[in-house]
Design brief:
The protein has 257 residues and is of the alpha/beta class. The protein has helices spanning 28-35, 46-53, 79-87, 119-129, 143-153, 188-199, 213-217, 251-255; strands at 8-9, 62-66, 92-97, 109-113, 132-137, 157-165, 218-224, 227-232. It has 8 helices and 8 strands, in the order βααβαββαβαβααββα. Helix 1 (28-35) packs antiparallel against helix 3 and helix 4 (119-129) packs across helix 5 (143-153). The radius of gyration is 20 Å and the shape is globular.
Length: 257
């Protein structure tokens, strides 16, 4: 379980674009193997990341990853951070972990200590390092933590940023505060399914509904095995039949009178 701690900046800044490692000739899968991250091998995530993030490879992006790895050992972890650093040679990599990981800081990799479900920590993280072009949640995988991180960090995503959640299999496991009940509203998967419904909020025939930020600002959600890719962008296409929200009565009730 993550514990709540005070935000502590563990490291440094370097100008973006320095110390590019020349990894642009290697695929993300090859880089994952090179750096020993479980995003390739234990899992099969690298190919999906490459599909969704390749267009950002040469841009000076800021990527936030929740979770450094290595648990309480301060010298272990950071494999995926180094993978991202090489894949995005002009990028800045930021990470948050509940444990002290100062020993893993290097040029273009900053690490903050704190809990992924602490709203004060997350707000300060976003204000200091954001906005983020990519956010990757590879943290505790506990449903309440996944939901809390998304809720507080989505506003710190760039207008066309991508939010990725890994290891969604834990949504079905009580050991991670998931549930065998596929209808349990408290799981991370059911939280995401509600966001999917929000893509079509203009079609909801309900009275006095006020669209939420995520209704209006999530353009698409893609699910693959144990992962979700949430694309931020304007979701402002009108219904071909219903008037805009809020409405003082339902459309179908009006047609029936």
């Amino acid at each position: 379980m993550l514990r709540t701690t005070t935000l502590e900046r563990l490291s440094t800044e370097g100008p973006p674009g320095t110390s590019a490692e020349g990894g642009d000739s290697l695929s993300l899968r090859e880089l994952a193997v090179r750096h020993g991250t479980d995003k390739e091998g234990a899992h099969f995530y690298a190919r999906w990341y490459e599909r969704f993030l390749a267009h950002l490879r040469d841009r000076p992006i800021t990527l936030l990853e929740i979770g450094v790895g290595g648990y309480e050992d301060p010298t272990v972890g950071g494999e995926s951070l180094r993978m991202w650093k090489e894949y995005f040679p002009s990028g800045r990599i930021v990470a948050i972990d509940v444990y002290d990981k100062q020993a893993l800081v290097e040029d273009r990799i900053d690490i903050v200590q704190g809990s992924q479900d602490d709203p004060v920590v997350l707000e300060r993280l976003g204000n200091e390092y954001g906005p983020f072009d990519v956010i990757v949640d590879d943290g505790s995988h506990h449903s309440p933590h996944v939901i809390a991180s998304f809720t507080h960090l989505f506003p710190h995503l760039t207008p066309d940023g991508i939010y990725v959640i890994e290891d969604l299999q834990t949504s079905y496991w009580p050991e991670f505060q998931g549930s065998h009940d596929l209808g349990d509203p408290a799981t991370s998967m059911n939280f995401l399914k509600r966001l999917v419904d929000g893509l079509n909020h203009v079609e909801w025939d309900v009275v006095d509904y006020e669209p939420t930020t995520t209704d209006r600002q999530i353009e698409s959600i893609t699910f693959v095995h144990n992962m979700a890719f949430i694309q931020r962008g304007p979701n402002d296409e009108p219904s071909n039949l219903l008037p805009p929200h809020p409405r003082n009565r339902t459309h179908w009730d009006r047609r029936g009178t």
